[in-house]
Write the structure tokens for this entry.
Amino acid sequence: MSTIGETTLRVRYAETDQMAVVYNANYLIWYEVGRVELMRQMGFTYLEMEQDGINLPVVEVKCRYKHPARYDDEITIRTRVEQMRTSMLRFHYEAVRKSDGQLLATGESTHVVVGRDMKRIHLTPKYQAAISSATGVAPAAAHHGAPSCATQS
């Protein structure tokens, strides 16, 4: 069974635009909150990954807006790992209004795994195992032959 992280937040006035709806770019920030909390649920933090020499820059992000969110709405961000390769992760997101269960937006983000030098590397077995265990998603082979962070000098 795949772990789905759920994080609830409340729309702040500063997140709305002149039309009294949430400004579109805020969903990407909410997706980041969901992703970071999902990592915690899987047993590690993004800070821990950085300390281990692993970074996950975003290389692609998508968001499909379905219904508006408004000031003071409580929003649940559902996050799951959709795909894992040895040097790439793809997350899927849903933004849902808590009061009525209305699906407001869906999205995904793709991240490559890089070292401190910003060169592509493999996720270490520690993180592959934690993600696989929590999500049931097994890593597929990488396409770029990236070296493992554990074997880099």
Confidence is low (pLDDT under 50) at residues 144-153. The chain has one domain: 5-151. The CA atoms of residues 122 and 146 lie 6 Å apart.
